[in-house]
Amino acid sequence: MQRRQRNVKILATLGPASNTPEMVDKLFETGVDVFRINMSHTDHDGLAEIHGVLRDMEATKGRPIAILVDLQGPKLRIGKFEKGDVKLKAGARFRLDLDKTPGDKTRVQLPHPEIFAAVSHGATLLLDDGRIRLKVDAVGADHIETDVIVGGTLSNKKGVNVPDTPLPLVSLSAKDRADLDRALDLGVDWIAISFVQRPADVAETKKIVSGRAGVMAKIEKPAALDHLQEIIELSDAIMVARGDLGVELPVEQVPIWQKRMVYAARRAGRPVVVATQMLESMISSPMPTRAEVSDVSNAIYEGADAVMLSAESAAGKYPLEAVGMMNRIAETVEADPAYRVGIDMQRTEPEPTTADAMMAAAHSVTETIGVASIVCYTTSGSTGLRASRERPNVPILAFTPVPATARRLSIAWGVHCVLTEDAKDFDDMVGRACRIARREGFASEGERIVVSAGLPFGTPGATNMLRIARVGRDDNLSS
């Protein structure tokens, strides 16, 4: 069985550099816990093919492996230029309109009337990932007159960001809805929704998903920050999507918001993923920069559940090296005594629920008497998440008979998922926990473990019991 020597999880995006069965197998062995499929670059046939590869590998490995499908979201782009690109000079005037005629240095098509309806005088428009900055001077029903604040070369179909104006966009485009339906039909584990602006965006997707997958809100719009707590509460997890967030926010504010989001998600008991440009230079280099290593380390010190690779694993020259580097960074950080001190300082008070009280008690037991691991029986996964929220100083084993639950919990900090039947009675609960903890390498003969479960057995959300058990000699280590 594959046991990670770290608590933080690693997400890796699949793409041309990594989507073969052989490479997927190597990525898993090197340290990937959750595989991301980006629907901006994947069609339905490709999605089904990769899904099949991952499920086949899961069966071979005997370990639950999570699949996250990342929806493209509404993409705002300009039209085309007569000569392919133009050079805009600071101080010049530039017009955006609905005219499909190829553009020039004075104008270009912007096929998004919703932007014309939303922006007003003084608003900022960012083109090409913020490289071009425009200031709105006048707005009509079919055009926007702007002043070029920061110029440069602008080419066909570049993206448009509107950082200081909430846009009346539907949260799921027609493409997103089709991709979502296909992903749910296949049975993926997580759905990431892009460009969330308001809590209703999450609620709409959750209504469609209806519990068939976890819903992860990507926080990459300043408007989402105004409703951060409500979005976190509605979501099953969040992603700190620093790419577009770094375009629309002053870049120096991104680290501050990253820390706020990680802590807010931890306090709410929602898994939080830190993403984008974590080891960016490894797209073309076998070694990262020192700044990138520090960036990944900081996310881990902050207590993030997972860190993510994007182009590094999807299209880069060194996908295995990038995963291996992230794995080594995580193991090294977590071995630092200062890491544990920081995690404990950020510990949050348990909510007034039985499950939280049980997991807080389990955490307390680990610190008082020194146990090897915490074992929690969980059907829906909520107990596993509660245990993860506590950030205990020992590993968490989540036992579940539900494959979907085991896969979804693969994203949660410190949780090692095991598929096993529900306990039949009290003795079976303890005996099964001891056998599997020993078999999986989380406890040795003579060590103690903490076992949590709910009575009656198999009832979702009924965690109401703790048992301290000692692992004995048992030649029968099957589950």
Structure description:
There is one protein chain. The chain has 479 residues and is α/β, with parallel strands linked by helices. The chain folds into three domains: 231 residues, TIM Barrel (Alpha-Beta Barrel), CATH 3.20.20.60; 77 residues, Beta Barrel (M1 Pyruvate Kinase, Domain 3), CATH 2.40.33.10; 117 residues, Pyruvate Kinase, Chain: A, domain 1 (3-Layer(aba) Sandwich). 37% of the residues lie in helices and 22% in strands. The chain is built from 17 helices and 21 strands. An eight-stranded parallel barrel has the order 1-2-3-12-13-14-15-16, surrounded by seven helices. Helix 7 crosses helix 9.
Report the β-strand fraction as a percent range: 15-25%
**What is the topology, as strand order, of the major beta sheet?**
1-2-3-12-13-14-15-16
Unreliable stretches covering 5 or more consecutive residues: 475-479
**CATH structural architecture of the largest domain:** Alpha-Beta Barrel
Biggest sheet descriptor = 8 strands, parallel, barrel
Topology, number of strands? 21
Number of helical stretches of at least 4 residues: 17
CATH class wording of the largest domain: Alpha Beta
CATH topology heading of the largest domain? TIM Barrel
Share of helical residues:
25-40%
Principal-axes geometry comes out as: elongated
On the 0-100 scale, what is the average pLDDT? 93
User: What class would the helix/strand composition place it in?
Assistant: alpha/beta
Radius of gyration: 24 Å
Gap from first CA to last CA: 13 Å
Q: State the CATH superfamily name of the largest domain.
A: Phosphoenolpyruvate-binding domains
